[in-house]
Design a protein that fits this description.
The chain is an alpha/beta fold. It has 5 helices and 5 strands. Helix content is 40%, strand content 20%. The model has no long low-confidence stretch (mean pLDDT 96).
């Protein structure tokens, strides 16, 4: 569990860095064989790219790093429940396990909304573990949005 917390702490740091760039503070870390192979935060505003969510960025970085489109055996740590777009990318990348912090009742696609991994059209569903560092993940988001209002 200590190792899991360490990876989530790094995802939280990526979320803080994203907030510092004016991005919605979501961070992600991708781990393969107990080693971090990629980490990223949201970059949608910086890149003017609606697909530049932390999960997509970390999947792209990891795939380039290992030279393969599939990330079988990899574990993804992300601070916020992935949206449907990201859940689809996680499925297509064949990620083994998804750990996420706080739920996203409005935009989530894993345990909220469409529940993508439970759909018959989903080709691969990772093991899902929610609520990891949920309080810290939610606090970063609440702080960010309270400053915007």
């Amino acid at each position: 569990m200590a190792e899991t917390n360490r990876f989530m702490d790094l995802a939280l740091e990526e979320a803080r860095l994203a907030a510092g760039r004016g991005e919605v503070p979501v961070g992600a870390v991708l781990v393969l064989n107990r080693e971090i192979i990629a980490s990223a935060g949201n970059r949608t505003r910086e890149r003017n790219d609606v697909t530049a969510h932390a999960e997509i960025e970390v999947i792209r970085e990891a795939a380039a790093s290992i030279g393969a489109e599939r990330l079988s055996g990899a574990d993804l740590y992300v601070t916020l429940e992935p949206c449907t777009m990201c859940a689809t990318a996680i499925s297509f990348a064949r990620i083994r396990r998804l750990y996420y912090g706080t739920d996203d009742p409005k935009g989530g696609g894993v345990e909220s909304g469409v529940r993508f991994f439970a759909q018959p059209t989903c080709h691969h569903a990772p093991e899902v573990y929610s609520g990891l560092s949920a309080t810290a993940s939610a606090a970063i988001l609440k702080d960010f949005f309270s400053r915007k209002r």
